[in-house]
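Dear colleague,

Thank you for sharing your sequence with our group. We've completed the structure prediction you requested, and as agreed, I am returning the results in plain text so they can be pasted directly into your records. Please verify that the sequence below matches your submission; if there's any discrepancy, let me know and we will rerun it promptly.
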Amino acid sequence: MIHIEHFTFNSFQTTCHAAWDEEGNCTFVDPGCNSEAEAKRLTDFVAAKGLKPSCIMLTHGHFDHILGVARLAELYGGIPVYMHPEDNFTLENNEFFCRVFGAPLPESFRTSDVREGDIIEVGSLKFEVIETPGHTVGGVCYLERKNGILFSGDTLFAGAIGRSDHPGGDYDVLMKSIFEKIMTLDGAIEVHPGHGPSTDIATERMTNPFLMPFNEPYED
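Please find the predicted structure tokens below.
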């Protein structure tokens, strides 16, 4: 069984997900904690629950999703940080983004490569890597198939899709990722995005205005 807690960090309201199994084996998805106080909210929760962090999983490398990575990786003994290698392009462009948005530049950290079909094991949880470029060149989602959970980053939101107008973004590629990789999943799968509320695949198929005219009709 999977347990999930959501944390909203930084001025961009980025969602960090903590996910763990029955034994307390834990991963962080997109930890964008931007200050000591924000990081303490997460680490205090981990300590209170007795969780055992084993890795960090990045859906992509935009600065607002990685602000807490270096701090957490060091705190928990150098746990691996998983990211698609193509998104090194995004890391390299974060200086531009931070200058534009007046945001702090994240501390550097090492990453371990993941690609389509790779499985990241966190105790009894198995997260399958799904390559979903378009928002960034190396964007991925993480699917825990047994528990019906998808961490979608900025690829798919409740009622929206990720923007594709930043360096490395491509609208046509993003739509291809969504329709061929995400909308083909079981409708009952819960979707936990990088910003905003959670949703599920069926709801997005039927109601997401950015996926029109491909929305599926409601069944009678």
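Summary note from our side: The CA atoms of residues 134 and 176 lie 8 Å apart.

Kind regards,
the structure core
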